[in-house]
Amino acid sequence: MASVRNKVNPLLCNIPYVLTWPRFGFRTICSGRLGFAPSTSPSLADTDAPVAGKKVLETFSEEFEIGSRKITLETGKIARFANGSVVLAMEETKVLSTVASSKGDAVRDFLPLTVDYQEKQFAQGVIPTTYMRREGAPKERELLCGRLIDRPIRPLFPSGFYHEVQVMASVLSSDGKQDPDIMAANASSAALMLSDIPWGGPIGVIRIGRISGQFVVNPSMDELSISDLNLVYACTRDKTLMMDVQAREISEKDLEAALRLAHPEAVKYLDPQIRLAAKAGKQKKEYKLSMVSEKTFEKIENLAKEPIEAVFTDPTYGKFERGEALEKITQDIKRALEEGDDEGLKILPKTVDTVRKQVVRRRIISEGIRVDGRHLDEVRSLYCEAGNLPVLHGSALFSRGDTQVLCTVTLGAPGDAQRLDSLVGPSSKRFMLHYSFPPFCTNEVGKRTGLNRREVGHGTLAEKALLAVLPPEDVFPYAVRINSEVMASDGSTSMATVCGGSMALMDAGIPLREHVAGLSVGLISEVDPSTGEIKDYRILTDILGLEDHLGDMDFKIAGTRNGITAIQLDIKPAGIPLDIICESLHPALKGRLQILEHMEREISAPRIQDDRYSPRLVTLKYSNDTLRLLIGPVGALKRKIEDETGARMSVSDGTLTIVAKNQLVMEKVQAKVDFIIGREIEIGGVYKGIVVSVKEYGAFVEFNGGQQGLLHISELSHETVSRVSDVVSVGQQLSLMCIGQDVRGNIKLSLKATQPRPKSKTNISIDEPIAPTNQEVNVWTAIEDVSNEQEKQGATAGPETIDSTSKSATPAVLIRSAAECDEEEKSDVLNSKGDNGSQSASKSDKKTRIPSSLSESGLSSRNAKKSKRGKDAILDFISDDESDEDDATSETPMSANKLKLGMKVTSKVHQIRALGLVLDLGCGIRGMYRFEPGEKRDFEVGDELRVKCSSFSTKGIPVLSLVRRVI
Q1: What is the Cα–Cα distance from 165 to 99, expressed in whole angstroms?
Q2: At 948, which helix (H) or strand (E)?
Q3: What is the dihedral angle through the alpha carbons of 63, 65, 66, 67, rounded to the nearest 10 degrees?
Q4: How far apart are CA 250 and CA 177, in angstroms?
Q5: Residue 599, SS3?
Q6: Residue 202, preceding bond cis, omega within 30 degrees?
Q7: For residue 505, what are the CA distances in angstroms to 106, 467, 660, 741?
Q8: Could you tell me the strand order of the sheet in which 394-400 lies?
Q9: What is the mean pLDDT of residues 37-50?
Q10: How far is CA 652 from the centre of its chain?
Q11: Contact between residue 187 and residue 169 where contact means Cβ atoms under 8 Å apart
Q12: How far apart are CA 659 and CA 679, in angstroms?
C-alpha cells in the first residue's frame, strides 16, 4: 500500500508509518483524502484485484497523418455526458468539440443551430490581463472561427429538422505552431458523427498555403506568415461545402490548382471519423421533421403560382415594390385559408417562399432572364464618388444597383493598432476594417447590440481583400481604420465595401499598388430528385439579395487586375461539385474588370492631400531615459500633451512616433516635445526658443528642452543694430538657427539666418564681396565663415576673376599659424588692455574652427565640459578632428610663413561644400579648392589630394588648384 501512496501523491511520502497501522482504523492516504477502512480490507497479496469505487474509462481513438503531421481523434475520456464529444490533437495542440440537441419538439420553421468557439488563456499557461482575470465576451477571432465551423456543417442537416442544436469547441492546449480553427471544424464533424443527431456528414476541412510557388498542406503558423495563400477548404467525399481564401493577387489558374489539391487532402479526414463512429457512435435518433403534406402544398401552390410569376416577370419592380407585392399575395392566400385550413395557415410563410423559389429558378434555367431583367453575366449600374467628405482623411461612396456603401478612412499612430489576444498569430494589427449594417439600410426597425457575427464576418472578408495591396509597414507606418456604413442593401454589401474602401484609401493618399474590387456570383441549379445530382445549372454574376436568398450559392470574390485577394463561399444545398466552383471564377473576373474600370475613372492614383486636413507622422529617435521624461509619472505628461493638441504619441524602444491631424497640430506637438526633452542639436537646424535675458552684447535664449544659447547682437538682423532691446525682449518667442558653438561652450544662435536677405537698391546682391578700403592684418578665421564667404565671392565673380585678381598683386594678408596666434594673444593680455586695436586683434585671434555638427563633436549645452581659457582652449578647438604631426602633407613641416604661390603640397579633404572643398594643409592651416564646371565630384572626407597654391583670397585663405589625387 505504501507504493500506491507514493504514486498517487509524492508530497505525502513522508507520512508517519504509525498512521497506516490497521488497528487505528485508518486507510492509506490517497489523493490527499483520509477515510476509514472497511472491516475487511484486502491483503497486500491481492494487488491485482479490482479496487472498490474505481471506474475505468473506455476510450476510443483513431490516428492518421495528413501533410506530414500526425492527427489523433479520441472520445470517451472527456465530456462523456455530451451527445457527442471528440478531442482532436495535432502535435501539442488539442481541441475539444461537443454537440448537444434539445429534447422537445418546438414549433419553428428554421434550424436553430448555434456554434460557439472559445480560446481561453489557460491553453497557453497564461492568466488573463482583464480586471476580473476572466475571459469576457467573445472576441472577433472567436466569432470568425465559429462561423468557419457553422458554414460547412449547416447544409448537411436534413430538411425539416428544426430541433435546437449547439456545437461548442474549445482549445484545451496550444503550442502556438498550429491554428486551432481547422482542428475545431474537423472535431465538430466527428462529434456530430458520434451523436444521435441526424446529419449528412462527415466533412473534411483542410488548409493550403503556398511558399515560393510550392503548395503546402496544413502549414504551421510560421509557414503561413510567409505564404502568399491561405486557403481553407471544406468538402464531403465528392462535393464542395465551403471556401475561405486570403491571397496576394493569386491568379485564377493557380487558385484552381490549389482547390484541386485541397479536395483529396480534405477527404483524408473522412474515413477516420467513420471508423471512430462505428466503434463509439450512437444510433441515430428518429426526430420529428417539420414536413408539408403534398395536398396542402399543392393547394397553396395553385393559389400563389400565377400572381408570383406576374411579379417576377415585371422588371420595373424595385426591391421594396416587389416585396410589397409579394406580401400582398401572401395575405390574399391567408384570407383564403382562414375558412378552415389550419395546417395551411401554420406553414403558409414557408410554403409561399418555396413557391417563389421554384418560380424564379425555373425562369432563370429555361429563359436565362433574371428578376430585374438583366442577363446572367451582366453587372448592375455603378456609381462611384471619391472624396465626398473632404474634412476626413479619406472617403468614398460606392453604389451598385440599389446597394450603396459609404467608406471612410482614418489614419492614426502605430500605437493605435488593434491588440489581438489570440492564442496564435500576431499580437496586433495596424489595418482594421469595421463593417456596419444598420437597420435603416433595409427600411427596418432594429436594436443595435454588440459584435454581430455577420458584421464581423463581412468586415473581415473586406479587410483581407484590401490588405494585399497596402504598402509595407516600414514604408507606411500609419495605423489605418476603414469604417464601412451600409446605406442601402440589395445584395453584396461586403463586396461593395471592398470597392468603396479601395477608393477611400486612394483618397486618403495611401499608395496602394492596385485598386481592389469585388462582386458575388450565384448559382441556380436543377436537381434530379431520384439521384440528387445536378442536371442543369446557371451561373449568375452580381446577384441581388433575392437571388442570394432563393439561389444555391453566394460566392464572393475580390481582387485586382492581377489576381484574387479574398474569397468567401457559402452554399445552401448539401454540396456543389468542384468543377462548377472553378467555372464560376471566370465570370467573376469579367465582372470585376468592369467594376475596376469605373473605379479608375473616378480616382486612379493616391490623392495629394490638403495640408489643412491631411495627417502628419514624424518618427524621432531618443534614448530611453529621455523618453521617460516625456512620458512622465504613469504617462501623465504624455496624456496631457495629447489632450492639449489632439495628436497621438506612441513610444517604443528608443523611438517616439507622433501622428497629428494636420501640419499645424504637428508643429504644436513638436514645440511641446522640444521644450520638454529637446532634440539633437545640429548646425543649420531651426529651433523655437524663448528669450530669458537680454545683455548689451546679445540675448540668452532657452530652447530645445531647457538648453540655452547665445543670440549675439551681430546675429539679430541683416541691418546694423545699436541696442539688443530694440529687436528682442524677455519672454519673446523666436525661431532661431544654430550656427555653431564658441570657445566657451555657448551655443551660437542666429535670428537673421532665418530671415530673407534684403536686396540693395542697385540690384546688386548683398552677397557680393566689397573690397576693403584698408589693408588690415587679418588672422585665420573660422573655416565655415571662410568657406561661406568664398562661396559667395565665387558665385558672383567666378574662378577666373579670383585668379586674375590674386595674380596681379602680392596678397596683403598675413597667414598665421595657431602658435603665432597664441603668442600674439599673450602679448595683448600683458601689454595694452585698453587699446582698441589690441582688443580687436585679441578678439579676432580667438576665432576658431566650429565643428561641422555639434552632435558629431559631442557638444551640448547640458553635458559640454567646462571650456578651457587662453591658449589651451584655442588649441583644443583647433586640434579637434585634426591629425597628428605625421599627417603633415608637405615634404617639410608646413607653416603659414612657408606657404607661397606655386608651392605644391599634399592635403586632406576636411569638408565638402556645395561649390568646393575645404582642404587641411596641416598645422591648423586651411585652404579652399573650387569645383570646375562639369567636374566629377566624387570626393570623400579624408581623401588625400596633391594641390598647388595658386592665389590667396582677400581674407588670406589659400586658393588651391588640383594637381592629382594621392592613391
Answers
A1: 7
A2: strand 944-952
A3: 150
A4: 25
A5: helix
A6: yes
A7: 49, 11, 18, 47
A8: 382-386, 394-400, 403-412, 479-488, 431-436
A9: 44
A10: 16
A11: yes
A12: 18
Given 3-state DSSP classes, what are the helix, strand and coil percentages for the chain, each rounded to the nearest 5? Answer: 35, 25, 40
Q: How many CA atoms lie within 13 A of 874 on its CB side?
A: 23
Q: What is the C-alpha separation between 790 and 928, in angstroms, rounded?
A: 8
Q: What is the DSSP string of 519-571?
A: EEEEEEEEE-TTT--EEEEEEEES--HHHHHHSSEEEEEEE-SS-EEEEEEEE
Q: How far apart are CA 566 and CA 568, in angstroms?
A: 7
Q: Which helix (H) or strand (E) holds 295?
A: helix 294-312
How far apart CA 342 and CA 288 sit, in angstroms, is 19
Residues 65 and 71 sit within 8 Å (Cβ to Cβ): yes
pLDDT tens for each residue of 685-733:
888 888 999 988 899 998 876 778 889 998 998 888 888 988 899 989 8
What cell does 678 get?
529637446
Closest CA to 432 of 448, 418, 442, 450: 418
Closest CA to 694 of 705, 710, 707, 675: 710
Three-state DSSP at 556 gives strand
pLDDT tens-place string over residues 739-791: 988 777 778 999 988 888 776 544 433 343 433 433 333 333 333 333 344 44
Q: Which spans in 846-927 are helix H?
A: 854-857, 870-878
Tell me the C-alpha distance between 184 and 182, whole Å.
5
Percent of the chain whose pLDDT exceeds 70:
78
DSSP state of 904: E
C-alpha grid cell for residue 967?
592613391
Confidence of residue 612 (pLDDT cuts 50, 70, 90): low
What's the sign of the alpha-carbon dihedral 754, 760, 765, 769? negative
| Residue 796 binned pLDDT confidence (cut-offs 50, 70, 90) | very low
Q: What is d(CA 926, CA 917) in angstroms, rounded to the nearest whole number?
A: 10
Residue 324: φ, ψ to 5°: -65, -35
Q: Which residue has the higher pLDDT, 706 or 35?
A: 706
Return the CA Rg of the chain: 42
Using CA atoms, how far residue 102 sits from 150, 167, 189, in Å, is: 18, 12, 18
Residue 520 pairs in a beta bridge with 556
CA 778/CA 216 separation, integer angstroms: 79
Single out the residue of 54, 55, 72 nearest to residue 63, CA to CA.
72
Q: What are the CA-CA distances from residue 763 to residues 144, 288, 320, 772 (Å)? A: 73, 103, 77, 21
Distance of CA 141 to CAs 95, 146, 180, 453, 497, Å?
16, 9, 11, 10, 20
pTM check: above 0.70:
no
Let me know: does 786 contact 794? Beta carbons within 8 Å. Answer: no
Cα atoms in the 13 Å half-sphere on the side-chain side of 81:
0
* Euclidean distance between CA atoms 470 and 464, whole angstroms: 11
- Phi/psi class of residue 10: alpha, beta or left (left: φ > 0; alpha: ψ in -120 to 50)? alpha
